[in-house]
Structures are given as C-alpha cells and as structure tokens.
TrEMBL record:
Pathway in which this enzyme or protein is active: Amino-acid degradation; 4-aminobutanoate degradation
One GO term (biological process): gamma-aminobutyric acid catabolic process
Pfam families with a match to the protein in the record: Aldedh (PF00171)
Top-rank taxon: Eukaryota
Single GO molecular function: succinate-semialdehyde dehydrogenase (NAD+) activity
Aldehyde dehydrogenase domain boundaries: 21-483
GO cellular component: cytoplasm
Protein name as it appears in the record: Succinate-semialdehyde dehydrogenase
CDD domains in the cross-refs: ALDH_F5_SSADH_GabD
Catalytic site positions: E260
Keyword annotations from UniProtKB, A to Z: Oxidoreductase
Lineage: Eukaryota, Fungi, Dikarya, Ascomycota, Saccharomycotina
This enzyme's EC code(s): 1.2.1.16
Catalytic activity entry: succinate semialdehyde + NADP(+) + H2O = succinate + NADPH + 2 H(+); succinate semialdehyde + NAD(+) + H2O = succinate + NADH + 2 H(+)
C-alpha cells in the first residue's frame, strides 16, 4: 500500500533535467515495484541514450556558470538542502522503505546519514584550500588552487537509494561541479525526491539532473556516461565487475573516477574481547539492511577460547529478529531487493553445507510474508574452500569461522581480492593496533559494528576500488589541482 506522504511533491515520476520535470519522448517505460508486496509503485519513462546525451549537454552547460558561483552561496544551498531533508525526514524514509524494502528505522537512519553529507560539505565548501609553494628559483612563486573537475556522472546502487546519491552529490556541489545522477532502476524514487529538494534549496537550474533508466537499459546509459567527453568524472557505487567495466569504458576519455565497489568484510573477535559488545555489534554489522551493505560483515572469525559462547549468544539474538514489511510496527528487518539476491544467499548456504558447515540458526524463504522475505542463516565451522569465504553474500547469512592465532587470522582475512571494511574486537591495545595496521582494508572498525559517518574517509583498497567519499578528503575526488607560477617576482 502506498504510504501517505505529508509532502506529496516528494513523489515524482519524471526525470529532472535543467530544473524541470522532463517529458521524455521515449516509447519505452519501466515499472518500479515495492519489493515487500510486489505491487507496482509507478511506471517511469525508460530514457533513450539520445535523451541521456542531451541531459549530459545540459549538465555541461550549467557547469560553465555554476563553477563561478561563490563557495559561500554553495555552502548556503547545501545547508538548505540538509535542513529540507531533515524537515521531510518521515516522507523520505517512507519512500526508501517503499522502494527498497528496508525497515523504517533503517530508512530513517539512512535519511539522516545522507543529509549529514550535505551538512558536512556545507561546512567544507568554504575550506577548499590551495597552497603557496616556494620553487627553487627564489624569484618565482607557485600558487595552487583546487578547481572543480567539471560535470560529473553519478551511478548509484539500490541499497542506499538516498544516501549514496547524497554522499556523491554533496562534495560535487560544494566545489562547483554539476551532476547527472542515474539511480538504480529498482529504486529511483529517492533520487527524484532529492532533486525536488535540491531545487527548493536554491541550486541553480541544471546543477542537479536525474535521468531515469530501467535495469535493462542501464549498460547503454553507463556507456553514454563513460564515452562522453563532456563528463569529466564518474563516481560509481556497485559491484567490482561493473566497476571494472566502467573503468575500461572510460579509458577513451581518461576520466577521473571514484570506485566504491564490493567488499568481503571480516570481523575478528579475539578471546579478550568484550563478548557482549562483540556479539551485539557483529549483529549490527552483519544484518544492517539484512546484509545488503557493502560494509556488512561477510566472514566472522572467532578465536577458539570464546567460539562456542559467541555462537550461542549470537544465535540467541538472531532468533529475536522480527522480519516483516518494513512499515510494520516492531519489524527489525525487512525484505531483500529481489529474487536474485535470495538465490545468492541460498547458493552460499548450500555450498557451505555441502562442504561441512553446520547450521546454528536455520533460515530460508518466508513465502507467507512475500516473495522476497528471507530469514537469516547462521552457520558455523566455515572453512576457506567455501564460496562465502571468497565472495560477498550481500544477504542474511552469518558465516562463522574458528581461529587460533593472530597470524593465522590475518592471513585468512587478507586472502581476498577485496579490501573495503574490516572489524576487530579486542580489549588489548597492542592487538587492536597491530591487527588494524596489517588488515588490507580501506576502513578498520574497532570494537564497533557501525562506523560510517560523513566525517569518515569512506573507501576501499585492492579490488574494492579507490577514491574517498565524505571527510576532509571528499572534495579532492571532485577537484583538480591548478598551479600558477608567478615568475620574476623581485623586491
Ligand atoms: N563500496 C561501496 O560503497 C558500495 C556501496 C553499495 C554497494 N556496493 C557493492 O555493490 C554490489 C551490490 O549492488 P548491486 O547488485 O546493485 O551492484 P551492481 O554493480 O550490479 O549495480 C550497481 C549499480 O550499477 C548499475 N549498473 C550495472 N551495470 C551497469 C553498467 N554496465 N553501466 C552502468 N551502470 C551499471 C546498476 O543498475 C546499479 O544501479 C555489492 O558488491 C556491494 O558491495 C558497494
Ligand atoms: O553500502 C555501502 C555504504 C554503507 C555505508 O555507507 O554505511
């Protein structure tokens, strides 16, 4: 059932281009479904590559004037957008739950999280510092500026329909870049709501454009972004194989790129950890959005001294989950996005069981609730020949390994091409410090399972990608350093 929005303007069904709701001439459409009920929410135009090219041109034209706006104006618009998101918190959260299926409390958290990037970059916008540098010749001076890279293409995933776009657009707006955003075809409504609010916040026409493309037409749109000489940077959040494809496709135009890709996050629980805390926080990490975040724990390594106790405490908590429609009172976990996501969990469970893993909590499909509802599995005695060791499940499977020594667990944790997040639970400072340093991950979270924040440099190493979103580094990804040499400066 459609949620009642206090502000009906937040529900839009057209692309947003050049400050207007755009009447697409495309003959094709696509449907957006509520994954919890499978009801159609809305039918949207499936824009053609020609329309995407036109929208890119508009984004590029707008850059010529937007890049000259003052940092103080941009800061004000960003702050307005933050305020507007917070004022419309309930409606924005309802739209997320409706199109993504996550429970309302998670959706509220997502809106606050996404809004916090606009707040953060409203402040950072004014601090886009350059340097003065003394070269070898004492009569010359070097001055550097950080200039906006140009119009940027933002390609966003389904799992945070609001916050991923916000995390990319906020630093872009702050430095003077214009944006063309393509949301995931399954969850485009939050981006349209954001476009409406960005317009209300005062951003000039053409600064923020949202194009609409079905899942099937997405590769053609991606190619258009990559091959366009007008787009100077692409920021992508999604899986590693798609990231690699976009990187390759962009080589002809040598774009600047940010790649926030897949992970395979380990959690390490040492014997000396605060066990209550480790259990509670491992649950929070593993089952946030039912396992559909790139920083969700994929592998749980528990030291032998606390292995059995940890598993028993962990399982008790999982059994208390209330799975259901994200809008329903008391629901702790919603549904998965689609059947492909469910098959992936099943594939990992079946593979692990066939190789000797043991069931601690039996999960599986919950057809009475709907086609995409899935109860979590907890499996123990996982080994490194199992699929879940090597691939991200991106769903509700907690795979628990036993380990003996620090050296052994570090070797196992790093035995993956991915390197996004990792977690360490220990009360020993020495262990925490040395293990954190040696883990091959862009972000190590110590004694907490929920660590992301606008202040954090978010990003990975290895095949989890490159670039840092948020934090004091976030604007760097959207700027290029311009150097000016002042010659023959004499006293
Ligand atoms: N590192 C991060 O910040 C982060 C955040 C969220 C998700 N992810 C990763 O994303 C994956 C799950 O998300 P997913 O299944 O939606 O991933 P995906 O790579 O299949 O899709 C991501 C987005 O890219 C689009 N896409 C797919 N093919 C494309 C193409 N050829 N050109 C342009 N765009 C294309 C999709 O429509 C979607 O919007 C996981 O691996 C997860 O770890 C990473
Ligand atoms: O899924 C990726 C983003 C997760 C987060 O930013 O907390």
């Amino acid at each position: 059932m459609a949620p009642q929005l206090k502000n009906p303007h937040l529900f839009q069904s057209k692309p947003f281009i050049n400050g207007q709701w755009y009447d697409s001439k495309s003959t094709k459409t696509f449907k957006v479904y509520d994954p919890a009920t499978e009801e159609v929410i809305v039918e949207l135009p499936d824009q053609t590559p020609e329309e995407i090219a036109e929208a890119i041109k508009i984004t590029s034209n707008a850059f010529e004037t937007y890049k000259k706006t003052s940092a103080h104006d941009r800061s004000r618009w960003l702050r307005n957008l933050y305020n507007l998101m917070m004022e419309n918190l309930d409606d924005l959260a309802a739209i997320i739950t409706w199109e993504n299926g996550k429970c309302l409390t998670d959706a509220i958290g997502e809106v606050k999280y996404g809004a916090s990037y606009f707040e953060w970059f409203a402040e950072e916008a004014k601090r886009n510092y350059g340097h003065t540098i003394q070269p070898a010749n004492p009569n010359n001076k070097i001055v550097t500026y950080k200039q906006p890279v140009g119009p940027v293409g933002l390609l966003c995933p389904f799992n945070f329909p609001s916050a991923m776009g916000a995390r990319k657009a906020a630093p872009a707006f702050a430095v003077g870049c214009t944006c063309i955003l393509k949301p995931d075809g399954q969850t485009p409504l939050s981006s349209l709501a954001l476009a409406y609010l960005a317009d209300q916040a005062g951003f000039p026409k053409g600064v923020f454009n949202v194009v609409l493309v079905s899942v099937e037409s997405t590769p053609a749109c991606g190619l258009e972004f990559c091959e366009s000489p007008l787009i100077k940077k692409i920021s992508f959040t999604g899986s590693t194989p798609v990231g690699k494809l976009l990187y390759k496709q962009s080589s002809l135009t040598l774009k600047k790129m940010s790649m926030e890709l897949g992970g395979n996050a380990p959690i390490i629980v040492f014997d000396d950890a605060d066990l209550e805390l480790a259990v509670e926080q491992s649950i929070a990490s593993k089952f946030r959005s039912l396992g559909q975040t790139c920083v969700c724990a994929n592998r749980l390594y528990v030291q032998s001294g606390v292995y059995d106790k940890f598993i028993s405490m962990f399982a008790d908590k999982v059994r208390q989950f209330k799975i259901g429609n994200g809008f329903d009172e008391g629901v702790t976990h919603g549904c998965l996005i689609n059947t492909k996501a469910m098959r992936k969990v099943e594939e990992h469970v079946e593979d692990a069981l066939s190789k000797g893993a043991l069931i601690v909590v039996e999960g599986g499909e919950l057809p009475k609730l709907g086609k995409h509802f899935y109860a979590p599995y907890v499996l123990k005695d996982i080994t490194n020949d199992m699929k879940v060791h090597n691939e991200e499940t991106f769903g509700p499977l907690a795979a628990i390994f036993k380990f003996e020594t620090k050296e052994e667990v570090l070797k196992e944790c790093n035995a993956t091409p991915y390197g996004l997040a990792a977690y360490v639970f220990s009360e020993n400072l020495n262990t925490v410090y040395t293990v954190s340093e040696d883990l091959e991950a862009g972000m190590v979270s110590v004694n907490t399972g929920l660590f992301t924040d606008a202040a954090l440099p978010f990003g990975g190493v290895k095949e989890s990608g490159f670039g840092r979103e948020g934090s004091l580094y976030g604007m760097d990804d959207y700027t290029v350093v311009k150097s000016m040499v002042l010659g023959n400066v004499y006293r």
